[in-house]
Write a structure and sequence with these properties.
Layout (H helix, E strand, L loop, with lengths): L2 H13 L2 H10 L10 H21 L3 E5 L9 E6 L7 E7 L20 E3 L2 E3 L7 H18 L5 E7 L9 H7 L1 H4 L3 E4 L3 E2 L6 E3 L4 E10 L5 E2 H4 L6 H10 L20 H7 L23 H6 L3 E8 L9 E2 L2 E10 L8 H11 L6 E4 L15 H14 L3 E3 L8 H8 L3 E3 L3 E2 L10 E3 H21 L5
Parallel strand pairs: 3-6, 3-7, 7-17, 8-18, 9-16
Antiparallel strand pairs: 1-2, 2-6, 4-5, 5-19, 10-14, 10-15, 11-13, 12-14
Length: about 475
Amino acid sequence: MSRDAAISRVTDYFEAGQFQSDLADLVTYRSESQSDAPEARSECQRYLEQAMLPRLNALGFNCEIIDNPDPRGGPLLIGERVEGDDLPTVLTYGHGDAVLGQDGMWRDGLSPWEIVEEGDRLYGRGTADNKGQHLINIAALEAVVAERGSLGFNTRIVLEMSEEVGSVGLPEVFKAYKDRLTADVLIASDGPRLQPDVPTMFMGSRGGTTFDLVVETHEGAHHSGNWGGLLSDPAMILAHALACITDVRGQIKVPEWRPDSLTDSVRAALKDLPVAGGQGPAVNPDWGEEDLTPAERVFGWNSFTVLAMVSGVPDAPVNAISGWARATCQLRYVVGTDPEDVVPALRRHLDAHGFENVEIRCHDRGFFAATRLDPEHPWAQFVGDSIRKTSGELHVLPNLAGSLPNDSFTDILEVPTIWVPHSYRGCSQHAPNEHVLKPVCRDALRVMAGVFWDLGEQGGPKS
């Protein structure tokens, strides 16, 4: 009975092919929370009932599947395994819902709902986001129990099926079930490693808000020869409006969107973190805030993105001036940005630049606030030391560049949050050809078995 034996046990689980087999089963559930189809909602229910509940019950969890109080959201599972009132309690989390499968858009030989192995890659929707990640954590808990006979701490778990639609209903559930979800710390997994061969730990996330910018100038489309020079072109107006939000290299020009939270301590935490190299697209050193490092731009600053833009009929253009143009936009923001003022600030900025006719339409979906925990926090130090003991190296981020429902944990449940991601930035999550890397999964299983073993042996940080 030892730490090394627990890590060896979970390594054998991977080497024997059982992890791949288990993940393949999870991928078959078409749990598309972004779909309005009734069968998608039933698949989300089935994922919890058939894929998660039996496994968690076998691990000693008492679980309950509850309805989402928000009609837009899917069901949730909450459970607990109690070993002693004098032991620390660890909360963990995952989401079994996925973005739309995008059937027919994957390259030849791949399907979103079937695992396909190619070299070190396992393709399938949800492999990286997030089925593979919470499977790794559950398997690591199983390995520790199998080796020690117990965990040595109490565990609570939340699995939701609405993360990809903004975790709608999650705050309400946390408020209603707060007494059943109290814990000393959250240790969970989502998002990518900074580099695939080195574990990453982050303690918060950027917030995110999406909205449409719409210009409507006249009814219908009209012949570009007869009306060119007489009718306003909404696409041109919209393009100029977007150009006043950032400059040509993407530097934000809305004053209230420029945060003041990139302190010396945050800069120190981000110093020398490698964001270039590895797998995935090349980083453009000439994009974003000019006087910031690449790490500071993505982890310590705000970023504005045009997700989609359309006017007329792009697939079948005709010689006509469209009456409308629309851009779907997103702001990712760090701590220090007032989320309630994001849209009002943009409205003021557009008006000041003469774009009163550009309408802002906010999306009707939940989004996450920005959060950040001090890297010197005792729980961050404890988990970080454990990961280094197993892996030798660790990248520590004050917050993830993406967005998570972390504010529900920090603001409602009031727990420190530690995230240990098990994917990598080139995984194509939210896109065709999503995949995980087998070496990352193997390493992550070992890392998490070590973290959970150390928690049971040491009881968490001493201060």
